Amino acid sequence: MATIVETKLKQERLLRIIEDELQDLPPLPAVVMRVMQTINDPTTSASDLNRLIAGDQALASKVLRLVNSSYYGFPRRISTITHAVVILGFNTVRNLTTSLGVFNAFDAQGRQTALDRDGFWAHSLASATAAGVIARRKGIVAKSIEEVFVGGLLHDIGKLFLDQYFPDQYAITLKLARAAKISVWDAEKTALGVGHALVGKRVAEKWNLPPSLTSMITLHHQPAFAKDHFEITAVVHAADRVARKVGLGNGGDELVPPLAPEVQQWLNLPPAVWESIEAETCQKFDDGKEFLKVAQGG
Ligand SMILES: [Fe+2]
Ligand SMILES: [Fe+2]
User: Fold this and answer.
1) Measured in angstroms, how far is the CA atom of residue 153 from the centroid of ligand 1?
2) What would the pLDDT profile of 59-85 be if each residue is shown by its tens digit?
3) Is the pLDDT reported for residue 46 higher than 90?
4) How remote is the CA of residue 113 from the centroid of ligand 1, in Å?
5) How many angstroms separate the alpha carbon of residue 211 from the centre of ligand 2?
6) Domains, the chain
7) Which one of 111, 115, 197, 243 has the lowest number of neighbouring Cβ atoms within 10 Å?
């Protein structure tokens, strides 16, 4: 009994420290915040977006490297942001910018931590790729296909926060997941008293990420609770599983969890379709490797 009380007290203390660190989390660069805000402003034009992004040279050149990477595979060079918006669309360029902002925010320190960052980002990219494949198969609207890609890329950002700001505790958490053969999410709840989905929610709120993206981050392990954004959250939940099943990347554990029944019911795909989704994910993942390299500043 005493141990349970002690563990609870320890977790409460840790939760308070996590809250404090979340308060101190540096904001996303102002330009990234402004680009995200254009989502809610229907009067924003392509040239407004161009002006915003081109105002930050480092960001603009990264966006251009991404749109010229083999991931998009355009035969001719895209040399301006305006051109990129015309070719790729407003949403793609805006989503790329958001993703780059988040990638950079967690990549600054470059020190060795317990979470294998390369494996982590590969898992994220595989989930993003799978999310796009599933969304297209399900025939959901183009804007949502864009959204689920970013959702897949960023769904586990809570892990990055915990790994970066609480490296010792997170090392123990990952060890527990491996030793007990449980998911990282379960190990976090046991060792830290809070899972990465909830921590991701707090990070998303702090950075004013759009509600749809916040839903995919917060509820990717519990899609049944995603009221307004069930479909995109369900896609990211299923995509996370596909990434694990095909063994692309590593999010800290090697388990392949079952598909949530609500998602299974909504997607309603026969085994042969799942197999082709898995095959297409593996195929497209290779094209995405350059995307990762550029996004990570390589
Ligand atoms: Fe997760
Ligand atoms: Fe994941």
Assistant:
1) 11
2) 888 889 888 887 788 888 999 988 888
3) no
4) 18
5) 19
6) 2-295 (1.10.3210.10)
7) 111
Residues with CB under 5 A from ligand 1 (ion): 156
Share of the chain above pLDDT 90, in %: 50
Radius of gyration (C-alpha) of the chain in whole angstroms: 19
Q: Distance, CA 237 to ligand 2 centroid (Å)? A: 8
Q: What separation in Å is there between the alpha carbon of 222 and the centre of ligand 1?
A: 10
Within 181-229, where are the H helices? 184-191, 196-206, 211-219
Q: CB–CB of 184/251 below 8 Å?
A: yes
> What are the distances in angstroms from CA 128 to CA 22, 104, 138?
25, 18, 15
Ligand nearest to the CA of 250: 2
CB atoms inside a 10 Å sphere around CB 32: 24
pLDDT at 143 over 80: no
> 221: CA distance to ligand 1 center in Å?
6
pTM of the predicted model as reported, rounded to 2 decimal places:
0.90
94 burial level (CB within 10 Å; 0-12, 13-18, 19+): buried
Give me the sign of the Cα torsion angle 267, 269, 273, 274: positive
Compute the distance between CA of residue 159 and CA of residue 10 in angstroms, rounded to an integer. 20
Query: Ligand 1 centre from 177 Cα, in Å?
Result: 13
pLDDT of 155 strictly over 60: yes
DSSP state of 38: G
